Amino acid sequence: MKLRLSPQTLSVLDAFLEAPKEWRYGYDISRGTGLKSGTLYPILMRMAERKLLETSWETVEAGKPPRHLYRLTPDGMQFAREHRLPRAGKLRRAAWSEAEG
Amino acid sequence: MSAIPKFSVRLLRAVMQYTPEHCREWASAMLRELDFIEGDWAALFWALGSAATIVRYCGLELMRMGFRRQEEAEMKETAKNVGWVFAGVVLSVLLIVCAMGLFHLAAYFFPSMEQSIPWPTWLVVFFLPETLFIIGTVRFWRKRRPMAVGVLLAAVIFATHFVMHIVSHFNRG
Fold this sequence. Notes:
heterodimer, A: mainly alpha, 3 strands, B: mainly alpha, 5 helices, 87% helix, 0% strand, rod-shaped
């Protein structure tokens, strides 16, 4: 599966870049980005397939169901920085030029 | 738990039953999150979105896998059938060889039998094997049809050969 850099994918990358080394829950990412499960999970699945995202099951006490956790891999971090920072820079430049104009 | 979250959980569990192995982890991940979603309707929308994701991304894969398995099974079945047809032909040829051997053995011990196409020869070389072929075809038809087809094929070829042999023999005579 190809990773399309849609605004939704970029917002997921942003969410991960807020705390790149932390494990995140799917629902928390959904709340943070405002994406529904039908949009968020295909993005996560594609990212995991391209080894940009690592997944893990939370270890919890007995009787409590474990939750799935997500974190960027080193490749994922590099990918996110490469694709997010230039866009952020462009947006910043656009905002400045708008303010100046 | 009210009816809507219960329905959401049931929906995702039902979808999970048909999820292929490699997608099950993701389906399970979406299901687990349901316990932490605040609000019944939010849970329902989460379940609907998750079910759609599973069907879209894993359902297609499942269909592809199903087709591949079906094709493989069909190929195996065809190979098996060809094998049984071949076995039927080999069995029939062995029977003909036995009949010929029996005829030659009889001719060796009873030289008077060596007349031009006498009835005993016809009986041993043609009618006996052909009768056995027909019995074999009828017996195998229901249980092992490809083998019956092989026997029938050999019977037809043998009968054609025999008829041609007789015709050429009488024409010479």
